[in-house]
Amino acid sequence: MTRPEVSELDHLREIERLARAVRDAASSEGLLSYSSEEGNATALQRTVNALARGLRRYHFQGDGCLGEEADRPLLRLAGVVLLRPEVMPAGMAESYEAACTRLGVEARPEGWALWNTWGDDDRMKVTMVVSAVDTTEGLLANWSRGRALYPVVPLPSQVALIHNGWARHMIFSPFGVRKLGLGGQP
Are 163 and 126 in contact (CB under 8 A)? Predict the structure, then answer.
C-alpha cells in the first residue's frame, strides 16, 4: 500500500504532533522542566526540554519556516486587523462590504488582513491590505500565547493596497506593544 503524498507544511505539522507526544510523555513521567539550565539532567532530558521549549510555537503559512519562504525577511508589525464577512472587529460599526469599499478593495469571501507596520524610514505608519488571512490567524494564535512571531514580507500578489496611517481596531503585536510603549508598568 502506498502512502499518500503530503505537503511540506502537513509533514511539518505531523512532526510537530509527534514532538508534542514526546513532550507529553516526558511531562507525565516528571522529566519535563522547560529549563535550559539543568545541571544533573541527562542529554536526553536536556534535548526533550529543548524540544518542549520549541513547541511553544504554532506554525503557519508565511512564518518563514518553509524553504520557499527562507529568503524573505520578516516583517515587524505593530498589529493586525482581520476583516471578514461574518465577523468584524469589536467596535467597528460598519459592515464588511462598507469597510472594503472604504479601503478600495473588493469584498472577498475569505476576507482581508490589514497589517499595520512602518515605512522604510521606520517613522511613517502604513497599513498593508493583504490577502494573507490564514497567516494573520497564525500570528494571532502565537501572539495570544505570548509568542512574538512575525510573518515574512508578503509576496507582491498578496498585497492589494498600501495606505498611509494605521487601520483602527487593531490587535497589537508584542513588538508593537514594546515599540509604542503600551506595556504599562512592570
Answer: yes
**Number of domains comprising the chain:** 2
pLDDT score recorded for residue 69: 84
Give the SS3 label for residue 131.
coil
Query: What is 25-64 written as a DSSP string?
Result: HHHHTT-----S--TT--HHHHHHHHHHHHTT----TTSS
Does 84 share its domain with 146? yes
Q: Is the pLDDT of residue 167 over 70?
A: yes
If we measure between CA atoms, which residue out of 65, 64, 33 comes closest to residue 50?
33
Q: Which amino acid, 5?
A: E
Backbone angles phi, psi at 104, to 5 degrees: 90, 30
Cell representation of residue 158: 498578496
The answer to whether 168 and 125 are in contact (CB under 8 A) is no
pLDDT of residue 36: 60
Distances (CA, A) of 94 to 68, 81, 90, 100, 162: 38, 14, 11, 10, 21
Which of left, alpha, beta for 107 (phi over 0: left; psi -120 to 50: alpha)? beta
Characterize the bridge pairing of strands 159-164 and 125-130: antiparallel
* Domain annotation covers residue 132: yes
22: domain range?
8-56
